[in-house]
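Re: [help] complex structure
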Amino acid sequence: MSAAVSRIREPLIFGNKNYHQITEDLIGPTEKAPNRMWIIAFTLSVMTLGYGIFALCWTFYFGIGTWNANRTIGWAYDITNFVWWIGIGHAGTLISAILLLFRQRWRTGVNRAAEAMTIFAVMCAGLFPATHTGRPWFDFFMFPYPNTRGPLWVNFNSPLLWDLFAISTYFTVSLLFWYTGLVPDLASVRDRAKGVRKKLYAFFSMGWTGKAKHWQRHEYLSLILAGISTPLVLSVHTIVSFDFATSVIPGWHTTIFPPYFVAGAIFSGFAMVQTLMIITRKCFGLEGYITTNHIESMNKVILVTGTMVGSAYLIELFVAWYSGYIYEQFAFYNRVLGPYYWAYIGMMACNLLSPQVYWSKKIRRSVWWTFFISIFVNIGMWFERFVIIATTLARDYLPSSWSYYWPSWVEIAIYLGTFGLFFTLYLVFARVAPVVAAAEVKAILKQYGDQYLGPDAKPQPHHHHSDETEDVESDGHHH
Amino acid sequence: MKGQHKEVLFGLYDDEVVLMNAIKKAKKQHLDIMDVYSPFPIHGLDTVLELEESRLHVVGFVFGMLGTLTALIGMSWIFGGSLLFEGDWPTNFGGKPYWSLPAFVPIIFELTVLFCAIGMTVVFYIICGLGFGVNNPVLDDRITDDKFCLAFQTNNMDSSSVDNLKGFFKATGAEEVHSRTI
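Output below.
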């Protein structure tokens, strides 16, 4: 347990940390007054959020007519943004669930923030379809409940309803998973706090004391939640893609959509995690916990999923040609060379080409490259959804109804507002809760700390406290 | 036990390996361990403490099945068309069968996951006695930081037994020994 494991494998925790130092580094930032950077960022976020709320009120007062969506392009900016945010919300659960099942220990450095990001991104996403209904105060009609209208039930055969169930479930399960993981760390904050803060954290840490039995159950719960979240994550974007794939619109009606959407979601989700984590580690001085090793691992995921998405684009083009079906062929001709050719170029350049630089280990491990590529990827993924949605609808079966779409100021303001919401929530979260899962990092310290692993590993002293210790150690010590 | 004061003698260790050895030794000496507290889950601790395997997965399964059945029976009852249900309000969607099972699969799956997750999490908090606003006594503030705690209950214990336990803590490498009434 305490001996050096390997000098070749890379450590995940740098700086010769001990347990107390981890607490200081990770719990400490919640105890200090916010710095100027945070205050500026928070003010900007709240202002952007306010602008978004203003635009939402404008929409509710004057109606959906204030948007540029029209009869031809009924799904436009809002559904693009919805799918984009949902995609971003996929990295958190992927990191916390799938990587937990695969025993990828590097997840401990980034899972907390990535899960928080997931929850906030899903909140931003949910706003768009809820608003697009036009009369959001009737949105509860979407839920099946015994009502006085017949009772008139919702259409359980519709992918839009599946989507409602998928996203509500995803949000709830992610929230439970995230909060359950957070409870022991909130207890750490509580035990260091005084006065009102102590009372507040005592309330939110639910009376956690770190009992052996509780930890055992906690581990079980996390493992099973991870087990059920893994197919859940895959199902959510699959169902989002069904919104399109089950329609009869050429360019949407394809069986490749589910895997391609899921790959794209993971791709954009990891890119957003990179963007946020690079800023977070810098601001909180967490370079010892979110290391270049973590960044490289995530860049590998971005490279793989980016290439998958890129191949899907090329396969789509091939299949359109190979199908011999003129409407399908036209849809793709229109995507590449039609009025929105610029969006297609943006999508191809950002999604297929830009991550290819990650074949180079040097670039994979460069913070600056990672930061810029992660932004490119998210721009590219936005273009992808725009290409699929608006470009396809702009040229439908009847040339007389062809149209061109450009968002109105209201739509742009609502989109900006979701950024405001996202960053406001993230900044608040980073102030009140540890952004790295302290208990989980402590649990892997003796396997992945740089004093135990890698080129700087030191031989560890053995603990001899009595003559009998050794005799006890020999039986059933299985590490 | 609610309403009953516990006198607790506990030792704080600096390292989980030392703690594990102490527990093994206590087990050998047939000492009655009240509880062990740690800042993070220690691998293999449940085996050493001889804790029973958690049955949370059974809870998860039961709630998951409940979700599956809720979705399946709910949709079948609403749409009818099957042998079991006449249908509360059968609606014709594009001439498809009323009871179109494949189209029900996504919602059945989602509700299975949703029920399983909520049920298991709620049961976890209930059986652990945890919840918003619960204030469980904390033996030492550093247990959620870097101390590993082994605790014995000393109610009705004579002073020689208590001294014996103190000696045990010293022999097994505890950094500090305290007693508290909780």
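Confidence is low (pLDDT under 50) at residues 463-479 of chain A.
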